[in-house]
User: Which sequence fits this backbone?
């Protein structure tokens, strides 16, 4: 009989090594682990954390990253570690890592090459964890797609650093990396499902992106982009000249883009108060249409339900073994502390008692059709049968 299992453990002990060991012990509920996914607060000593994990689960394939908050079935957290373990002969796994120094697209292509190692599995997905501050994340998706094509869906998220916006870390085995992409190709004897929804609504009329360069927007309708953003969204005074206040305001006011695959959302990560430009975390095409967006707790929570149901609907009637959630930090900003507890409770209910793990991200990856696949301010759910 083919076996598959998923387990999740979490810990918030002050000592990083002890926390890593405790979370891993809780996650390892069956023999033959094949993969560990590690989502950790940036406050932990990463080397010590991985040493604690290695002591409990030596020589198990591992990828992970720092976060803007952690998710487990027991609830959301800010200063802990969550470990998801999966195993059994119904899963096959290969992992890889690449620095982005030679280009984001090259890094995406390099890590995707591990997909060939599980080519005999009937169901596959490529999990990607990236440096959320490295630039246009869509380039990583394009690089991975250039290797695996449309046959293998891409899913994952961008590492965070607790909203410091300074530096994120990625984990591969015992290695602590920065400015990198880590990947795991997951092969399964049973279906895998991916759900993607954001919950944001359009505000006002569309605008022309008159001038942009990669992820920087200089002019909207031929006016300085920052001035248009502040004026049309009635931004508070403190957001008009303070970078921190602007980032907090922008968390709940993304840009929407019209794409061939549908509507996409772009997180406005910062502003240049000198040249009056906006900085997003992915490409905003010059000459395209854009619009401002906003959301509330009801719309964001409705998207949570929709993402979970879409992921479940792809399991061909099989019960879920586990959920992995990649949830944007901006959605957390809308929901607030009580709301994110309710959201994680809903995700756990959709999982029907199966383990849940994940983290709050600086961007989400979900390519199930077309060549696009990078999202902002969106919830992506991976369901494993």
Assistant:
């Amino acid at each position: 009989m083919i076996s598959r299992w998923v387990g999740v453990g979490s810990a918030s002990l002050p000592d990083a090594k002890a926390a890593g060991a405790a979370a891993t012990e809780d996650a390892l509920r069956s023999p033959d682990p094949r993969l560990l996914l590690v989502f950790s607060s940036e406050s932990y000593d990463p080397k010590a954390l991985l040493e604690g994990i290695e002591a409990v689960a030596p020589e198990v394939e591992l990828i992970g990253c720092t976060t803007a908050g952690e998710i487990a079935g027991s609830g959301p957290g800010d200063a802990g570690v969550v470990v998801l373990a999966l195993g059994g002969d119904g899963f096959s796994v290969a992992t890889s890592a690449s620095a982005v120094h030679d280009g984001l697209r090259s890094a995406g292509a390099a890590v995707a090459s591990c997909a060939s190692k599980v080519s005999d599995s009937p169901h596959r997905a490529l999990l990607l964890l990236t440096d959320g501050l490295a630039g246009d994340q869509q380039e990583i998706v394009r690089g991975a797609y250039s290797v695996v094509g449309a046959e293998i869906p891409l899913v994952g998220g961008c590492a965070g650093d607790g909203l410091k916006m300074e530096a994120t870390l990625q984990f591969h085995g015992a290695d602590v990396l920065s400015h990198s992409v880590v990947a795991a190709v997951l092969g399964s004897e049973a279906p895998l499902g991916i759900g993607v929804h954001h919950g944001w609504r359009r505000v006002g009329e569309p605008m022309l992106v008159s001038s942009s360069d990669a992820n920087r927007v200089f002019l909207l309708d031929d006016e300085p982009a920052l001035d248009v953003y502040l004026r049309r969204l009635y931004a508070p005074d403190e957001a008009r000249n303070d970078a921190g206040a602007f980032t907090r305001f922008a968390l709940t006011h993304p840009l929407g883009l019209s794409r061939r695959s549908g509507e996409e959302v772009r997180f406005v990560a910062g502003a240049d108060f000198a040249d009056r430009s906006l900085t997003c975390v992915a490409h905003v095409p010059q000459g395209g249409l854009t619009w401002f967006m906003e959301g509330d707790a009801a719309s964001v929570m409705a998207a949570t339900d929709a993402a979970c149901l879409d992921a479940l609907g792809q399991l061909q009637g099989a019960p879920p073994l586990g959920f992995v959630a990649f949830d944007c930090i901006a959605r957390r900003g809308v929901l607030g502390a009580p709301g994110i507890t309710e959201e994680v409770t809903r995700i756990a209910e959709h999982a029907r008692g199966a383990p849940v793990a994940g983290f709050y991200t600086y961007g989400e990856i979900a390519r199930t059709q077309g060549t696009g696949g990078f999202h902002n301010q969106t919830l992506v759910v991976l369901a494993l049968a």
About this structure: The chain has a mean pLDDT of 94. The chain has two domains: 5-197+298-384, 201-294.
